[in-house]
Fold this sequence. Notes:
This protein has seven helices and eight strands, in the order αααβαβαββαβαβββ. By secondary structure, the protein is an alpha/beta fold.
Amino acid sequence: MKNKNKLIPLYQEVSKHSNYQILASTLEKYIGKKSVNAISRYEKERLKYFLDNVKIQGKSILDIGGNTGYFSFEFLNHGASMVCYYEGNKTHSLFVNEAANVLNVNDRIDIRNEYFLCDESNKGRYDVIFLLNVLHHIGDDYGDNSLSKEKALGSISRSLKNLMSKTDILVFQLGFNWKGNIELPLFNNGTKRELIDFVQDAITGYFEIISIGIAENISGIVSYKLLNNININRNDKLGEFLNRPIFIMRSLK
């Protein structure tokens, strides 16, 4: 009970990205689903796509911008040998630290309360890196806040290139709006094709794309399917988040 009393207020503390992830399945059993007010970003649906397309068992994982640890803990649940979790928000990191103690996995998770810099200052290498919905916040949550949008795009491109030497597999997702601001679209028409073309250009010679997952809603059930000539079209009924493709890439190094 003592740890539970610490976890709930840490999870619910208000910040820009608070309540941004649902609880990992093991934590939900411990805390109770009704104890927190979580806002789903389709974590379960994305996790299924990851597990269907990326080998996690026995792998070392880097979770960049891990928020309250949903994916970090689920990767451990599915047999990852270790997870290195980076998160700039102190409260989120404290929550993950307490949760790791509760779940008895603190020997398999390295919790770092800092922003991961996608440059040569980080020498570690991991089997799989998850970089989910982070880079469009450069110049906002982290990085140089004097950047122009054009320079932010250049920084996103360089960040992807710099990760080639740090992993075998990169799983990547990017928002359409710089800093999450609908007044600052990264791409002129906000289409999946523009975003995909940008990523393909950025990674040429560094990564090869294994698959691109696209969210579809069929009879009220959301799932990620492989890119095709139909689902590549933007579907505004799904909302901005579900229009973000998921890229799974293999390093060329």
